[in-house]
Fold each of these.
Amino acid sequence: MLAIETTSLTKRYREVVAVDELCLQAAPGDIYALVGLNGAGKTTLIRMLLGLITPTTGTARVLGAEVSAGDRAAWARTGYLIDTPAAYPELTVRENLHLVARLRRLPQPAARVDDVIDRLALTPYAERRARTLSMGNAQRLALAKALIHGPDLLILDEPINGLDPAGVVEIRTLLSELARENGTTVLLSSHLLAEVARLATRIAIIHQGRLLHEIDPRRLGGQVRRRLVVATRNDTRAAHALAGHGLTPEPGADAGLVLTDERALEHPEEIATALVEAGCPPTRLLVEEEDLEDFFLRLVGQADA
Ligand SMILES: Nc1ncnc2c1ncn2[C@@H]1O[C@H](COP(=O)(O)OP(=O)(O)OP(=O)(O)O)[C@@H](O)[C@H]1O
């Protein structure tokens, strides 16, 4: 059974198509990341998955059941964080969490609250009023509320916004553990692409409401562009020598030469040897790889062209 499955899911607001015939699938234990420019449709998708808005056409299934507003069974197994972290400002962190535990009618609420405070490193702030929390700790409290009932599915809109670098690492570790050890499925949206590349098991690039590309980050290496950057003291001579070996050097943006020939990328040492033999040894030789950000911008740019 899939944790999330959408079939031609579409949401229109008058002339705006916020989500357009979207077909996505996330398996249990996936950390599925949605990335896209502002207005790409990520939040609209998340709201449909949570039953907060109804699709114009198409369907969404979550944990095996079609999403419908007010479905308590699905709500009991799902945790979510959307919009700005909302907590009762005058209540303490612990009181806020007790309230959620009571609303969800959890057995042994005090133990659950202690456990989630500990998991999210909120112990030093447990007796602080929510309004006095820093943005990062407010975000931790919001995550604690999403996690308190041990959900099978976590839906998180921008969960690492506002966290400091240490906080980002903590949340990454926590989400990875939940997915790996408990089989929790995590669907998240984020603009922090470097972080997404580390955390996610699948990445969906959403553009103008459509699924532009789906990536397995472990195989990103097979999909991104690579190039060999060579610097020498005499680029004209070096270019001539490399062309003599059947290669196609291009001038680099600043200086030096750029090669994209497969042979050059696989065997940069042959390039070094050829340049030494031609009397212009490399002062720099580096295989550069597009990162997720470059890859994302290139795909989005191509889609708009
Ligand atoms: N209630 C609404 N009424 C009209 N248009 C809307 C509504 N909600 C969203 N939209 C439009 O739908 C499109 C998708 O918006 P959405 O908020 O889902 O994007 P997003 O990918 O979450 O963006 P961001 O990264 O900025 O949060 C945008 O063009 C937005 O203006």
Amino acid sequence: MSPYVLFVVNPAAGRGRVGQMLERLERLIHQQASGLKVEVAVTQRPGHATELAQQAPPQSRVVAVGGDGTVHEVVRGLVGSDKVLGVVPIGSGNDFARMVGLHRLGLEGAVEAALRAPAQPVDLGLVNQQPYGASLGIGFDAAVARKALEAPTFLRGMPRYLYSLFGVLRELELPHLELYQDDHLVYQGPSLLVALMNAPTYGGGIPIVPQAVPTDGRLSVAVAGRFSRLGVVGILPRLLTGRHVHHPRLRFFQGEAFLVRFDRPVPAHTDGELIPPSSEYRVRVLPKGLAVAGFAG
Ligand SMILES: Nc1ncnc2c1ncn2[C@@H]1O[C@H](COP(=O)(O)OP(=O)(O)OP(=O)(O)O)[C@@H](O)[C@H]1O
């Protein structure tokens, strides 16, 4: 029996580009799906993709059409099931697709892979019991993302990012971090950010932990320690090209389970989606947590 494939399309992804492509997308999917049972569902609101993924029948493929936020919501609906994740990356960042090698396929190639390519498992992360696919960022980058929500609506793209970045820099006051790996304290001190990664990149290709491998049964962790405002501005260009890894205020760890504890609630994001700020994040890897169509392993 051929599998049932549900495409979950987020019209808001890619800054609304997906919504503008809806008809073309549906045509393409139905053209390529001959012989398969396929349905296309358009999300109506944030969180809807998780419900749709949960409701899909056992052993089906559920394909996230959008960016990392859409993938994140579908992952949340699939974890612990025998369903397979597909990804048609049309977001702004697409770091999950980059992690599993699907970002270079182009639209038709990605639809084809979602429909018919064999599936291989990847690790997932779990933070305070909630799954994530590619990234967990705690601290500075999440604060910038949060600030962007308050930015004036006329600011878009890079101006919006710079507004948010300098807004957070102006108020910069580093929390005190204690990082435990398997119950051992491995780092303590002021911290700009902590990234607990399954993927090497976040934020649309920023190689925060270039050595991360999503099939090694471990999370790769970067801790940025005490940074001044000027220090942050100095490290950013190096971060974009992966030249930050030898910076003396950066530390890297790899492992299965971490406890991230702060002296106050600190903002965080999973796969680029903000989660409620907390002073404690319990994080672990879920080895081979989800099968992904078109992932070569
Ligand atoms: N119908 C909808 N209307 C508005 N927002 C929606 C709808 N459906 C889903 N969303 C939200 O859209 C947001 C953005 O989606 P997504 O992250 O996939 O796109 P993106 O931001 O372009 O990509 P990336 O995260 O890769 O940069 C998500 O937070 C999701 O919850």
Amino acid sequence: MEKEECLLSDQVHSNSHTTEATLSAGGQLRWGDRRLDIEKQVLGFSVEGFKIKIRAVVEAGAGICCCGGQSTLIRKTFVLELLSNDSLRIWTQKLQEYLDSLGRPKRLFIFVNPYGGKKSASIIFQNDVKPLLDDAKVEYTVQETKYQLHAKEVVQSLDLAKYDGIICVSGDGVLVEVLNGLLIREDWENAIRIPLGAVPAGTGNGMAKSLLDSNGEPCAVSNATLSIIRGHKRSLDVATMSQGETRFFSMLMLAWGLVADIDIESEKYRWMGSARLDFYGLQRIFGLRRYNGSVIFVPALGYESYGEPLDLENKIMIDDESEMKSEDGVVRDREYGYQGPEVDIKSLNWRKIDGPFVSIWLHNVPWGGEDTRAAPDAEFSDGCLDLIMIRDCPKLALLKLMTELNNGGHVKSPYVAYLKVKAFILQPGPRADDPTKAGIIDVDGEVLARGKGAYKCEEKTLMSYDKLLIKVDQGLATLFSPI
Ligand SMILES: Nc1ncnc2c1ncn2[C@@H]1O[C@H](COP(=O)(O)OP(=O)(O)OP(=O)(O)O)[C@@H](O)[C@H]1O
């Protein structure tokens, strides 16, 4: 192995021993039998007398847990005592220079949702996030969310120049609100460049799980916080869902049919905790519903064989995107702000599949929740959404398939079509067995539309249960990421 250039080498006291300490140009700090990779492990340092106190994270040994209960990381302080003033000055200067060269975020705006998940986000912030940020000397402003859409409201008028990132200690819901808040700003083009960070503290932590799993890390609070402190970034596709003038910006997924029904209707069993999904999932499989309707999509390269080319009637529908009108009285965002990607949808190679369908699922990232590897091949910024589609499936096969959701094995089932699409139109219809009842369209864990006779159909939604156009803007948003 090539020997690294040594920047500094000095005698130090550490743990009552005198030993040689070295700092390499590549940021490796070594003394005795210890080694720290500054970029990966060191949060910051402070100086007391001749002592440099290095705040770091290290892998926990077997059986040690901290930071949210399942972490592999623990905070640790290492003390190096220099033997002269000159050595101290040069060591602190070189360490600081190295940390400064890493381009880490210095000021963060942090949302904490005290209401999400097990209602423990405030404690998670206090006990597990804050100490790491303090060790890294990151400045932050904390805003607890007080009601639904509060985060979206705050982000709309936030002075973004003051911050290097916006962090959500929450589930996916608040993160999606932040995305929507940024994109309806007048200065959205600049605003959307701010990196967003997800610290898992909700029921649905699909984005945090997807990010950490992409680097083989557990979906733990400490891992997520460390990845934010280290400041690596990656881009993320944003899907614009539109119905006439009404738009919603999505970063995770859309579900219609079985998955949406389980996700939303199981609310009534919330008292069961996460078991509600399995319990209600079983009910829905035994009383399986199939929905009429169709999906029209632009297949990505390599998936052109799925579906049929459009007939004349549907071609006209594509020609007249304005046909997709929203109902009167729905909330419309102001005219300025992001209008969705500029794609000439008429020029695209659309194809169509007719229902009835058991389930339609569109995914931007691999994990829909910590236990749901919905779209194992999904990539963060490939400009595509992964479509997971079930038209018909015997109940036993469906049951088996649902048990494989946690490892992504379901997409190999002969009853599942799994493909990548660049644009998508959902034409949702009523249940095949009961035309008086329609379904639910679930986007990023929230209800976007409810059809007639659907669960809680009297509740107002942003869009109507009608044609929905989805376009993808490749890499529009930026996320803090472990790699
Ligand atoms: N103080 C609050 N009271 C009520 N709702 C809130 C509050 N703060 C945020 N919310 C809303 O809570 C919803 C869920 O938030 P989040 O995604 O963080 O948690 P979650 O646990 O994943 O969600 P859920 O419990 O709904 O599955 C969001 O729609 C958000 O607007």
Amino acid sequence: MFSFFKKKPKVEPAPLPETPVAAPATPAALPPAAAPVTAVVAPPTVTPTAAVEVAPTATAETEAEIVAAPVAAEQKRSWLSRLRTGLSKTSSNLTTLFVGAKIDEDLYEELESALLVSDAGVEATHFLLNALKKKVKEDKLTEAPQVKAALRTLLIDLLTPLQKPLVLDQHQPLVMMIAGVNGAGKTTTIGKLAKHLQAHNQSVLLAAGDTFRAAAREQLTIWGERNNVTVIAQESGDPAAVAFDAVHSAQARGINVVMVDTAGRLPTQLHLMDELKKIKRVIGKGMATAPHEVLLVIDGNTGQNALTQVKVFDDALGLTGLVITKLDGTAKGGVLAAIATNRAIPVYFIGVGEQIEDLQPFDATEFVDALLT
Ligand SMILES: Nc1nc2c(ncn2[C@@H]2O[C@H](COP(=O)(O)OP(=O)(O)OP(=O)(O)O)[C@@H](O)[C@H]2O)c(=O)[nH]1
């Protein structure tokens, strides 16, 4: 298995914190990076816009929960089996049509239906069918298993451009902004990623940018306390200010990775899409090169609407990567072909459950084999 993240030599010296443009209220003096982990108590008179920093407290429970990398073979097998189970409907549709089949128009029609039902969309379906017909003709394929093998190769070729590792150690800190519709799995993904990053010796700081839902902020804060991850949160107010504070705090502490959580929103909620653009802009005021990664988390069960989400969020933010969650549910998987054909943004990770090891890097061959076996 390839590694979870790719590491690059640092090319960017740690910049000094810049002068805040619209400086949000900051908490008491930050401890140095190597300081013993102690709670930074929120000022007694917390104004609605005052940032509250919850420093982590290491516990025995925390240590027990951190997953060692690389993933053990047994875990990997169980992960693959969950992916296969999740995609079993599509895989059964795609594989049964080749059983004892003759290579004729009927087969191509059935394949067209199966691909469309899998959420591959019209463009990817037609692209794959045309390429397959060409291959069958050129290579004079006469047996169904040969055609199935040709489809496997075409699918792998189509999806491989989406396979790209998340690169660490290129920026100090690496600032990632995470967006998506409500319930897509943003906060869960951030939690899993934080643990994977810790297992790769990266220190992590989270910005609770979902200021819309108090419960979301509290959830992240409690999670951070339990897992030795500092969380920057705000009683209420401006998510851009929380993100700004988080970037400065990470710079001051020498933290490796900042993840900025954002509230769920629909692509049609234009004012909320504008708010995301503002968060991105303000992060850039905290650190000129940031955010270095803008990730969209997509629920794998969303169907063709996932493509709309990719397009709208990409137009608004310039996405650098995708995370596809819940591929263990009723997801059909074909939407990755639609994304590859229409907006080939790297899929850094896919998720097949709620455990930390259920989030793994996207591997085109692994994924296609789950679809076709
Ligand atoms: N089965 C399954 N459930 C998942 C996966 N990822 C996340 N979930 C569940 O999806 C639900 C929503 O996840 P959250 O992380 O809260 O989603 P969110 O995008 O942060 O939600 P909002 O903050 O409301 O927008 C939770 O119950 C998660 O446990 C996955 O890969 N598989």
